[in-house]
Amino acid sequence: MPWLETKDPYKIWISEIILQQTRVAQGWSYYERFIERFPDITSLHKTQESEVLKYWEGLGYYSRARNIKKAADQIFTTYHGKFPDTYETLLSLPGIGPYTASAIAGFAYDLPYPVLDGNVARFLARFLAVESPPLEPSGKKIITDFLAPAIQETKPSAFNQAIMNFGALICKPAKPNCHECPFTSGCKAYQLRLTDQLPVTLPKKEKSNRYFHYFILYNPKTDSTVIQQRSGKDIWQHLYEFPLIENESEGPLPKQKSDVLLSVFDIDSDAEQPLLAIHKTQNLTHQKIHFNIQIFLWNGLIKDKTGLYQTVKVSNLSSFGFPVTLANMVTQLENMNGSTIKEKQQNDVM
Ligand code: SF4
Q1: Does the beta carbon of 187 sit less than 6 angstroms from any atom of ligand 1?
Q2: CA nearest 20: which of 78, 55, 59, 50?
Q3: Are 218 and 181 part of one and the same domain?
Q4: pLDDT score at 345
Protein backbone atom coordinates (compact mmCIF):
# COMPACT_ATOMS: atom_id res chain seq x y z
CA MET A 1 0.00 0.00 0.00
CA PRO A 2 1.57 3.29 -1.05
CA TRP A 3 0.53 5.13 2.08
CA LEU A 4 2.58 2.73 4.20
CA GLU A 5 5.69 3.40 2.12
CA THR A 6 5.58 7.16 2.20
CA LYS A 7 6.46 9.96 4.58
CA ASP A 8 4.55 12.47 2.46
CA PRO A 9 2.00 14.08 4.84
CA TYR A 10 -0.28 14.92 1.91
CA LYS A 11 -0.56 11.28 0.75
CA ILE A 12 -0.94 10.02 4.32
CA TRP A 13 -3.73 12.53 4.90
CA ILE A 14 -5.65 11.57 1.73
CA SER A 15 -5.27 7.84 2.40
CA GLU A 16 -6.41 8.18 6.00
CA ILE A 17 -9.51 10.15 5.02
CA ILE A 18 -10.42 7.64 2.29
CA LEU A 19 -9.84 4.67 4.59
CA GLN A 20 -12.01 6.11 7.33
CA GLN A 21 -15.00 5.29 5.21
CA THR A 22 -14.09 2.28 3.15
CA ARG A 23 -12.18 -0.99 3.30
CA VAL A 24 -8.64 -1.05 1.93
CA ALA A 25 -9.65 -3.29 -0.98
CA GLN A 26 -12.27 -0.76 -2.08
CA GLY A 27 -10.38 2.39 -1.10
CA TRP A 28 -7.24 1.45 -3.04
CA SER A 29 -8.53 2.37 -6.50
CA TYR A 30 -10.10 5.60 -5.23
CA TYR A 31 -6.81 6.57 -3.59
CA GLU A 32 -4.82 5.86 -6.75
CA ARG A 33 -7.21 7.80 -8.96
CA PHE A 34 -7.29 10.72 -6.55
CA ILE A 35 -3.50 10.92 -6.21
CA GLU A 36 -3.03 10.60 -9.95
CA ARG A 37 -5.26 13.64 -10.54
CA PHE A 38 -4.19 15.58 -7.42
CA PRO A 39 -0.60 14.48 -6.73
CA ASP A 40 0.11 17.25 -4.23
CA ILE A 41 -1.43 20.00 -2.15
CA THR A 42 -0.90 22.57 -4.93
CA SER A 43 -2.96 20.64 -7.47
CA LEU A 44 -5.75 20.24 -4.91
CA HIS A 45 -5.67 23.93 -4.05
CA LYS A 46 -5.84 24.95 -7.72
CA THR A 47 -8.89 22.88 -8.61
CA GLN A 48 -12.59 23.56 -8.02
CA GLU A 49 -14.55 21.85 -5.24
CA SER A 50 -16.85 20.35 -7.89
CA GLU A 51 -13.94 18.42 -9.40
CA VAL A 52 -12.89 17.09 -5.98
CA LEU A 53 -16.48 15.91 -5.46
CA LYS A 54 -16.39 14.22 -8.85
CA TYR A 55 -13.30 12.23 -7.81
CA TRP A 56 -15.03 11.36 -4.53
CA GLU A 57 -18.14 10.06 -6.32
CA GLY A 58 -19.11 6.67 -4.87
CA LEU A 59 -17.10 7.01 -1.68
CA GLY A 60 -19.90 8.72 0.27
CA TYR A 61 -19.37 11.10 3.21
CA TYR A 62 -18.99 13.98 0.79
CA SER A 63 -18.39 16.49 3.60
CA ARG A 64 -14.96 14.87 3.88
CA ALA A 65 -14.18 15.74 0.27
CA ARG A 66 -15.38 19.31 0.82
CA ASN A 67 -13.21 19.56 3.94
CA ILE A 68 -10.19 18.21 2.06
CA LYS A 69 -10.57 21.04 -0.44
CA LYS A 70 -11.12 23.63 2.33
CA ALA A 71 -8.04 22.38 4.20
CA ALA A 72 -5.90 22.53 1.04
CA ASP A 73 -6.98 26.15 0.52
CA GLN A 74 -6.28 26.97 4.17
CA ILE A 75 -2.79 25.47 3.92
CA PHE A 76 -2.12 27.98 1.14
CA THR A 77 -3.71 31.00 2.77
CA THR A 78 -2.32 30.37 6.27
CA TYR A 79 0.82 28.28 5.77
CA HIS A 80 1.95 29.44 2.28
CA GLY A 81 1.41 25.96 0.84
CA LYS A 82 3.65 24.17 3.35
CA PHE A 83 1.94 21.18 4.97
CA PRO A 84 1.70 21.79 8.77
CA ASP A 85 4.07 19.64 10.80
CA THR A 86 2.72 19.85 14.33
CA TYR A 87 -0.22 18.02 15.87
CA GLU A 88 -1.91 21.26 16.96
CA THR A 89 -1.71 22.95 13.54
CA LEU A 90 -2.90 19.77 11.82
CA LEU A 91 -5.85 19.71 14.20
CA SER A 92 -6.77 23.27 13.24
CA LEU A 93 -7.48 22.27 9.62
CA PRO A 94 -11.05 21.54 8.43
CA GLY A 95 -11.94 17.86 8.64
CA ILE A 96 -8.82 16.86 10.57
CA GLY A 97 -9.71 15.47 13.98
CA PRO A 98 -7.51 13.84 16.61
CA TYR A 99 -7.34 10.54 14.71
CA THR A 100 -6.15 12.00 11.40
CA ALA A 101 -3.86 14.52 13.10
CA SER A 102 -2.23 11.66 15.04
CA ALA A 103 -1.87 9.56 11.89
CA ILE A 104 -0.17 12.38 9.94
CA ALA A 105 1.97 13.46 12.92
CA GLY A 106 2.97 9.86 13.64
CA PHE A 107 3.51 8.48 10.12
CA ALA A 108 4.90 11.58 8.38
CA TYR A 109 6.84 13.26 11.17
CA ASP A 110 7.38 10.44 13.69
CA LEU A 111 5.78 12.48 16.45
CA PRO A 112 4.54 10.46 19.45
CA TYR A 113 0.77 10.58 18.98
CA PRO A 114 -1.06 7.25 19.18
CA VAL A 115 -3.45 6.50 16.33
CA LEU A 116 -6.75 5.19 17.58
CA ASP A 117 -8.43 3.50 14.64
CA GLY A 118 -11.03 0.74 14.88
CA ASN A 119 -8.41 -2.03 15.03
CA VAL A 120 -6.42 -0.36 17.81
CA ALA A 121 -9.60 0.49 19.72
CA ARG A 122 -10.80 -3.13 19.62
CA PHE A 123 -7.46 -4.57 20.70
CA LEU A 124 -7.03 -2.13 23.62
CA ALA A 125 -10.70 -2.34 24.65
CA ARG A 126 -10.12 -6.07 25.15
CA PHE A 127 -6.65 -5.81 26.60
CA LEU A 128 -7.81 -3.26 29.20
CA ALA A 129 -11.40 -4.61 29.48
CA VAL A 130 -12.83 -1.15 28.78
CA GLU A 131 -16.45 -1.05 29.88
CA SER A 132 -17.62 1.66 27.50
CA PRO A 133 -17.52 1.83 23.68
CA PRO A 134 -13.83 2.43 22.87
CA LEU A 135 -14.43 5.15 20.28
CA GLU A 136 -16.79 7.11 22.54
CA PRO A 137 -15.16 9.83 24.70
CA SER A 138 -14.84 7.89 27.99
CA GLY A 139 -13.52 4.72 26.33
CA LYS A 140 -11.20 6.74 24.11
CA LYS A 141 -9.72 8.50 27.14
CA ILE A 142 -8.89 5.23 28.90
CA ILE A 143 -7.13 3.92 25.79
CA THR A 144 -5.22 7.09 24.88
CA ASP A 145 -4.13 7.55 28.53
CA PHE A 146 -2.68 4.03 28.31
CA LEU A 147 -1.03 4.51 24.89
CA ALA A 148 0.37 8.03 25.35
CA PRO A 149 3.27 7.07 27.66
CA ALA A 150 3.86 3.78 25.82
CA ILE A 151 4.45 5.47 22.45
CA GLN A 152 7.10 7.79 23.97
CA GLU A 153 9.38 4.79 24.43
CA THR A 154 9.29 3.75 20.77
CA LYS A 155 9.54 4.82 17.16
CA PRO A 156 6.01 6.29 16.83
CA SER A 157 5.31 5.37 13.20
CA ALA A 158 6.38 1.75 13.75
CA PHE A 159 4.45 1.56 17.03
CA ASN A 160 1.24 2.87 15.45
CA GLN A 161 1.55 0.60 12.44
CA ALA A 162 2.27 -2.40 14.65
CA ILE A 163 -0.80 -2.06 16.88
CA MET A 164 -3.03 -1.27 13.91
CA ASN A 165 -1.81 -4.44 12.18
CA PHE A 166 -2.10 -6.44 15.38
CA GLY A 167 -5.74 -5.45 15.77
CA ALA A 168 -6.45 -6.21 12.10
CA LEU A 169 -4.69 -9.57 11.96
CA ILE A 170 -4.76 -11.09 15.46
CA CYS A 171 -7.25 -9.32 17.72
CA LYS A 172 -9.88 -9.54 14.98
CA PRO A 173 -13.49 -8.41 15.35
CA ALA A 174 -15.35 -11.72 15.45
CA LYS A 175 -12.87 -14.38 16.56
CA PRO A 176 -9.61 -13.03 17.99
CA ASN A 177 -6.65 -15.38 17.52
CA CYS A 178 -5.92 -15.59 21.25
CA HIS A 179 -3.95 -18.82 20.79
CA GLU A 180 -1.41 -16.88 18.66
CA CYS A 181 -1.40 -13.80 20.88
CA PRO A 182 1.68 -12.92 22.96
CA PHE A 183 -0.42 -10.77 25.33
CA THR A 184 -2.72 -13.37 26.89
CA SER A 185 -1.19 -13.04 30.36
CA GLY A 186 -1.84 -9.27 30.42
CA CYS A 187 -5.12 -9.26 28.51
CA LYS A 188 -8.01 -8.66 30.90
CA ALA A 189 -10.64 -9.79 28.42
CA TYR A 190 -8.80 -13.09 27.94
CA GLN A 191 -8.28 -13.58 31.66
CA LEU A 192 -11.92 -12.75 32.45
CA ARG A 193 -13.24 -14.76 29.44
CA LEU A 194 -14.82 -11.66 27.97
CA THR A 195 -13.18 -11.66 24.55
CA ASP A 196 -16.51 -12.28 22.79
CA GLN A 197 -18.26 -9.54 24.77
CA LEU A 198 -15.72 -6.78 24.19
CA PRO A 199 -15.51 -4.19 22.81
CA VAL A 200 -18.80 -2.78 24.06
CA THR A 201 -20.86 -1.39 21.17
CA LEU A 202 -23.62 1.18 21.07
CA PRO A 203 -27.05 -0.13 20.07
CA LYS A 204 -27.60 0.40 16.36
CA LYS A 205 -29.89 3.30 15.51
CA GLU A 206 -32.71 2.49 13.19
CA LYS A 207 -32.30 4.12 9.78
CA SER A 208 -34.81 6.68 8.65
CA ASN A 209 -36.46 6.10 5.28
CA ARG A 210 -36.58 8.83 2.66
CA TYR A 211 -38.48 8.73 -0.62
CA PHE A 212 -36.82 10.56 -3.53
CA HIS A 213 -38.74 10.93 -6.78
CA TYR A 214 -36.40 11.99 -9.58
CA PHE A 215 -37.45 13.26 -12.97
CA ILE A 216 -34.96 12.81 -15.78
CA LEU A 217 -36.06 15.01 -18.63
CA TYR A 218 -34.62 14.10 -21.98
CA ASN A 219 -34.66 16.35 -25.01
CA PRO A 220 -33.91 14.10 -28.03
CA LYS A 221 -33.42 17.05 -30.42
CA THR A 222 -30.55 18.50 -28.44
CA ASP A 223 -29.55 15.33 -26.54
CA SER A 224 -29.78 17.33 -23.33
CA THR A 225 -31.27 17.10 -19.87
CA VAL A 226 -31.69 19.17 -16.69
CA ILE A 227 -29.74 19.01 -13.45
CA GLN A 228 -29.46 21.04 -10.26
CA GLN A 229 -26.84 21.35 -7.55
CA ARG A 230 -27.87 20.26 -4.06
CA SER A 231 -27.65 22.91 -1.40
CA GLY A 232 -28.63 23.23 2.26
CA LYS A 233 -27.50 21.11 5.17
CA ASP A 234 -28.47 17.71 3.95
CA ILE A 235 -26.88 14.63 2.44
CA TRP A 236 -24.91 15.02 -0.82
CA GLN A 237 -24.34 18.74 -0.30
CA HIS A 238 -23.00 20.43 -3.49
CA LEU A 239 -23.39 17.26 -5.59
CA TYR A 240 -25.64 17.34 -8.64
CA GLU A 241 -28.96 15.62 -9.19
CA PHE A 242 -31.93 15.57 -11.52
CA PRO A 243 -35.12 17.51 -10.64
CA LEU A 244 -36.39 16.03 -7.40
CA ILE A 245 -39.49 15.85 -5.25
CA GLU A 246 -39.01 14.27 -1.86
CA ASN A 247 -42.17 12.68 -0.53
CA GLU A 248 -42.80 12.04 3.17
CA SER A 249 -44.20 8.56 2.71
CA GLU A 250 -43.83 5.37 0.72
CA GLY A 251 -45.90 4.75 -2.40
CA PRO A 252 -46.65 6.74 -5.54
CA LEU A 253 -46.05 10.46 -5.56
CA PRO A 254 -49.36 12.38 -5.44
CA LYS A 255 -50.19 13.55 -8.97
CA GLN A 256 -50.60 17.19 -7.98
CA LYS A 257 -47.01 17.22 -6.69
CA SER A 258 -45.51 15.78 -9.88
CA ASP A 259 -47.75 18.05 -11.99
CA VAL A 260 -46.29 21.15 -10.32
CA LEU A 261 -42.75 20.07 -11.13
CA LEU A 262 -43.50 18.87 -14.65
CA SER A 263 -45.31 22.10 -15.48
CA VAL A 264 -42.05 23.97 -14.76
CA PHE A 265 -40.62 22.06 -17.70
CA ASP A 266 -43.68 22.52 -19.87
CA ILE A 267 -44.62 18.85 -19.64
CA ASP A 268 -48.30 17.99 -19.54
CA SER A 269 -48.43 14.91 -17.35
CA ASP A 270 -51.80 13.85 -18.80
CA ALA A 271 -50.35 13.74 -22.30
CA GLU A 272 -46.79 12.61 -21.55
CA GLN A 273 -46.20 9.41 -19.66
CA PRO A 274 -42.76 8.41 -18.38
CA LEU A 275 -40.70 6.33 -20.80
CA LEU A 276 -39.06 4.50 -17.95
CA ALA A 277 -39.63 4.08 -14.24
CA ILE A 278 -36.75 2.75 -12.20
CA HIS A 279 -36.81 1.81 -8.53
CA LYS A 280 -33.67 1.52 -6.45
CA THR A 281 -32.63 1.78 -2.82
CA GLN A 282 -29.39 2.98 -1.31
CA ASN A 283 -28.29 2.53 2.28
CA LEU A 284 -26.42 5.40 3.86
CA THR A 285 -25.06 5.34 7.42
CA HIS A 286 -28.21 6.69 9.05
CA GLN A 287 -30.71 6.76 6.20
CA LYS A 288 -32.20 4.47 3.60
CA ILE A 289 -32.98 6.26 0.36
CA HIS A 290 -35.75 4.91 -1.85
CA PHE A 291 -35.36 6.13 -5.43
CA ASN A 292 -38.15 6.35 -7.93
CA ILE A 293 -36.55 7.63 -11.14
CA GLN A 294 -38.71 8.46 -14.14
CA ILE A 295 -37.54 9.49 -17.60
CA PHE A 296 -39.72 11.87 -19.60
CA LEU A 297 -39.36 13.27 -23.09
CA TRP A 298 -38.91 17.02 -22.86
CA ASN A 299 -39.08 19.87 -25.35
CA GLY A 300 -36.28 21.89 -23.75
CA LEU A 301 -38.39 24.63 -22.19
CA ILE A 302 -37.87 25.71 -18.57
CA LYS A 303 -40.59 28.05 -17.30
CA ASP A 304 -38.89 28.52 -13.94
CA LYS A 305 -36.88 31.75 -13.73
CA THR A 306 -35.08 31.03 -10.45
CA GLY A 307 -31.99 29.69 -12.18
CA LEU A 308 -32.21 26.57 -10.04
CA TYR A 309 -31.87 24.24 -12.98
CA GLN A 310 -29.24 24.02 -15.66
CA THR A 311 -29.50 22.35 -19.04
CA VAL A 312 -26.59 20.09 -19.95
CA LYS A 313 -25.74 17.75 -22.79
CA VAL A 314 -26.11 14.10 -21.79
CA SER A 315 -22.58 13.55 -23.08
CA ASN A 316 -21.35 16.12 -20.51
CA LEU A 317 -23.19 14.69 -17.52
CA SER A 318 -20.27 12.59 -16.32
CA SER A 319 -18.19 15.69 -15.68
CA PHE A 320 -20.52 16.52 -12.75
CA GLY A 321 -20.38 14.77 -9.37
CA PHE A 322 -23.59 12.83 -8.61
CA PRO A 323 -24.64 10.60 -5.68
CA VAL A 324 -23.65 7.06 -6.65
CA THR A 325 -27.13 5.80 -7.60
CA LEU A 326 -27.63 8.76 -9.92
CA ALA A 327 -24.06 8.40 -11.24
CA ASN A 328 -25.01 4.87 -12.32
CA MET A 329 -28.04 6.34 -14.08
CA VAL A 330 -25.80 8.86 -15.83
CA THR A 331 -23.64 6.02 -17.17
CA GLN A 332 -26.74 4.25 -18.46
CA LEU A 333 -28.07 7.43 -20.03
CA GLU A 334 -24.77 8.08 -21.77
CA ASN A 335 -24.83 4.57 -23.17
CA MET A 336 -28.32 5.06 -24.55
CA ASN A 337 -29.04 7.21 -27.53
CA GLY A 338 -32.26 9.07 -28.10
CA SER A 339 -33.90 6.39 -30.19
CA THR A 340 -33.15 3.74 -27.56
CA ILE A 341 -34.87 5.86 -24.96
CA LYS A 342 -37.90 6.36 -27.17
CA GLU A 343 -38.20 2.64 -27.83
CA LYS A 344 -38.35 1.83 -24.15
CA GLN A 345 -41.76 1.00 -22.84
CA GLN A 346 -43.45 2.67 -19.97
CA ASN A 347 -42.49 1.28 -16.57
CA ASP A 348 -39.77 -0.87 -18.05
CA VAL A 349 -37.31 -1.63 -15.25
CA MET A 350 -33.61 -1.26 -15.99
S1 SF4 B 1 -5.55 -12.38 24.15
FE2 SF4 B 1 -7.06 -12.41 22.56
S3 SF4 B 1 -8.45 -10.74 23.08
FE4 SF4 B 1 -6.58 -10.41 24.26
S5 SF4 B 1 -5.34 -9.06 23.01
FE6 SF4 B 1 -4.74 -11.13 22.51
S7 SF4 B 1 -5.99 -11.67 20.72
FE8 SF4 B 1 -6.93 -9.87 21.69
Answers
A1: yes
A2: 59
A3: no
A4: 43
